[in-house]
Amino acid sequence: MCDTCGCNITDGNRHLVSPGGRLSQTDDGRAAVTVLKSLLDENDHQALHNRGHFDARGILAVNLMSSPGAGKTALLEATIDALGDPARMVVIEGDLETENDAARIRAKGVQAVQIATGSACHLDAHMVHDALHRLDLEGVDLVFIENVGNLVCPASFDLGQHLNVTLLSVTEGDDKPAKYPVMFRAADLMLLTKTDLLAVLDDFDPLKAEQALRLVGSAAPVLHAAARKGTGIDQWIAWIEGELEAQRARIGAGTTRRPAVQSDGARLHAPQTVGVSHDHSHDHSHGHSHGHSHGHSHDHSHDHAAGAKR
Amino acid sequence: MHELSVCQALVQQLEAVSASNGGGAVELVRLRIGPLSGVEAPLLQRAFPLAAAGTVADGAELVIGVADLVVHCNDCGARSDALPNRMLCGACNSFRVRMVSGDEMLLESVELATPAAAPAEML
Ligand SMILES: Nc1nc2c(ncn2[C@@H]2O[C@H](COP(=O)(O)OP(=O)(O)OP(=O)(O)O)[C@@H](O)[C@H]2O)c(=O)[nH]1
Ligand SMILES: [Zn+2]
Ligand SMILES: [Zn+2]
Ligand SMILES: [Zn+2]
Ligand SMILES: [Zn+2]
User: Fold this and answer.
1) Claim: this prediction has a pTM higher than 0.90
2) Is the dihedral of CA A111, A116, A121, A125 positive or negative?
3) Is A182 in Cβ contact with B114 (below 8 Å)?
4) How close does chain A come to B69, measured CA to CA in Å?
5) Which ligand minimizes its atom distance to the CA of A148?
């Protein structure tokens, strides 16, 4: 397991690893155990498993994050219209209370599962896994996850997606990336939304927003869209189609991809080989109600050396 | 705020560490948190006792070390300190940098009451 393979040891923390054994005695007689695991280790393993589900079916999974009301659901509605084939995609909706967003998606003939997070301000990998088992993924090649509207927490939880898209509405201010660096660093694409309103807003400068993104250390592309008017949707769809192509190539090569930014330990896991380091051999023809004891006890070997680089 | 759910995950790990090392009570927990980890040390400090109540880590001391934010420059090779919203090379100002440290969210180590120590306390 991870705590023995050293995959969490990085340039940043190597000096902390004592040369002596992992288990030693402190002066006052306690047993001192060196652990060096990400606090979200359990979530990260579930995420790895979710990614295995997607890869095994040739699916591209995209996580949409933004403040509340930045236009995630409107973008999904426009995406369904533009793709033309509702059977190609499914949507997992994360929302504090209501079923509204899922209902909007279903109204367009697309399967949608609502995860009511209650008080939780983010989705985690276990919630997404449960949702996946409530969906029919036959013939689907795109899974969109609409995360809870929140610029803080969602970036910390790997859900098993391949890509993160962070939406920034032009009504919010072009300094958002500087205020929420963790969120914007996690973006594989920054999508400026409601750009139809740029004409009436004089305090949002798209160039400044892009500069702020560069200053948090992100090289992610920036696209503009006005979902309700259909403006910019062509470029968005072109980006999606390009990423679908890239996903097919990865699957052909037996590799996978994590979103742009992860924690130190996770980054060192990045060269994964599908089905080797984490064998998803459990039977997923099980109905959609299994209680999830499918004993993947994570005795996978984290064979980094053998993994193909992404 | 997700510090409570992070602490709940931490407590699960502490239960596992204790169980695989003799089952002693967790007395001290060391974490290392980077400024770009997405969690706030003071909020973790406040959430931890709530998550630990009634578990093997009930009453444990939580020590949080804050990691430095350090980048390596892909252009000039320099290693320098950075700020969360100014991830530039300190030497040449390039934004083509790689983070060396700063986003860790690590459980570093745990100190457990040993079976030998427990009876001594009871005397
Ligand atoms: N002017 C304009 N308004 C938009 C656009 N896209 C969405 N909106 C409006 O913004 C509001 C929020 O849009 P949603 O798509 O529900 O936003 P969301 O991000 O899904 O919201 P939550 O799920 O609550 O976080 C609605 O009133 C939309 O009509 C756009 O392109 N232009
Ligand atoms: Zn929505
Ligand atoms: Zn499963
Ligand atoms: Zn949260
Ligand atoms: Zn430099």
Assistant:
1) no
2) negative
3) no
4) 9
5) 1
